[in-house]
Amino acid sequence: MKKLLIISLLIIGFSGIGISAMKKTYSAQYAHRLEVCGAFSENYSTTMSSNQEHYTVHLTTTETVLGIRGGKCATKSEVYCQEAGQVVLKVECAFTQEQRVELAKLMTSATTDSGAANRLQNKMNNYIQNRPDVCKVTKYISDDDED
Predict the structure, then answer these.
(1) Are 75 and 107 in contact (CB under 8 A)?
(2) CA–CA separation, 111 vs 120, rounded Å?
(3) Which residues have CB under 8 Å from 32's CB, separation 6+?
(4) Distance of CA 141 to CAs 56, 88, 110, Å?
(5) pTM of whole model > 0.70?
(6) What are phi and psi of 125, to 5 degrees?
């Protein structure tokens, strides 16, 4: 039952958009490192709650700029679920210079401009949902997993 609730919360929270889209603001350092494609990593924590079961899932996301791979800037985002005791979702992206400059500008603006935050979220949603050539999502937990 506990694993089913975790899965349900993750499905509701991520519903195919991935973890990058959940975060509307990034540190200035992360935005800069993405723009220049310099290796960098940062973590942030979030919680997701279920009103029906009064259950909270604690998530830690690690956002990493890996550097140039195959002529594009490789990034990786991983979500670790404390209750499941494992990484439950990974998003790997490879951005062109034009894409990463645009994203870095949106990340910088998003800290003070809600319109930019929404544009950033929409842009990441599009890459994750519609552009497998840019972003690949891997889910490590499913409703077939045993409790």
Answers:
(1) no
(2) 11
(3) 38, 104
(4) 17, 5, 31
(5) yes
(6) -55, -45
Query: Tens digits of per-residue pLDDT, 63-84?
Result: 999 999 999 999 999 989 888 8
Angle at 142 between CA 59 and CA 124, to 5 degrees: 55
- Six-digit token pair at 71? 């002529």
> Is there a contact between 110 and 120 (Cβ–Cβ < 8 Å)?
yes
Three-state secondary structure readout of the chain: CHHHHHHHHHHHHHCCCCCCCCCCCCCHHHHHHHHHCCCEEEEEEEEEEECCCCEEEEEEEEEEEEEEECCEEEEEEEEEECCCCEEEEEEEEEECHHHHHHHHHHHHHHCCCHHHHHHHHHHHHHHHHHCCCCEEEEECCCCCCCC
Q: Could you state, in order of their start, the residue ranges of all structural domains in the chain?
A: 2-139
